[in-house]
Amino acid sequence: MTDIVRRESNERLSRIVIHGDTVYVAGVTSNAAGGITEQTRDVLKKIDGYLAQAKSDKSRLLSVQIWLKDIERDFDGMNAAWAEWVPANAMPTRATCEAKLASPELLVEIIVTAAKRPKYRGGPMSEA
């Protein structure tokens, strides 16, 4: 049986859950001042930190859910920040939707699922 590891838990949620080699990061929002591009960059920076805690990184993303307060207004700005951040050769599956977020100042919330980095195996590798 695989253990489930929960990190940064409170009475409502765990920020990170690790099950086997899969990492789940709960919805991440921004406390940065500014518009959609600034908030998205802030959220993605936080996600980098959460993935690092779980021994993963953005090149290991499997699935992403992006929630925008106003998809018509903010889709292009969010995508600009996303394109700066996500590795072009490691695109995850992704859905982007409009939602009423928890606070009026929040413009974006992002949920990610990723694979852990493979364990290092020392020594030369054989192709045989």
Query: Beta fraction of the residues?
Result: 25-35%
Q: Structural class from helices and strands?
A: alpha+beta
What is the helix/strand order? EEEHEHEE
The end-to-end span amounts to: 32 Å
Spatial sequence of strands, sheet with the most strands: 1-2-3-6-4-5
Number of helices: 2
Task: Determine the mean pLDDT.
Answer: 93
Helix content: 25-40%
Q: What's the main sheet like?
A: 6 strands, mixed
Q: What is the alpha-carbon Rg in Å?
A: 16 Å
Shape: globular
Q: Care to count the β-strands?
A: 6
- The low-pLDDT segments are none
What would your notes on this structure say?
This protein has 128 residues and is an alpha+beta fold. 26% of the residues lie in helices and 32% in strands. The chain has helices spanning 36-53, 71-85, and strands spanning 4-9, 14-19, 22-28, 61-68, 93-98, 108-115. A 6-stranded mixed sheet has the order 1-2-3-6-4-5, covered by helices on one side. Strand 2 and strand 3 (22-28) form a beta hairpin.
Primary descriptors:
single chain, about 130 residues, alpha+beta, six-stranded mixed beta sheet, 2 helices
Topology:
Layout lengths: L3 E6 L4 E6 L2 E7 L7 H18 L7 E8 L2 H15 L7 E6 L9 E8 L13
Parallel strand pairs: 4-5
Antiparallel strand pairs: 1-2, 2-3, 3-6, 4-6
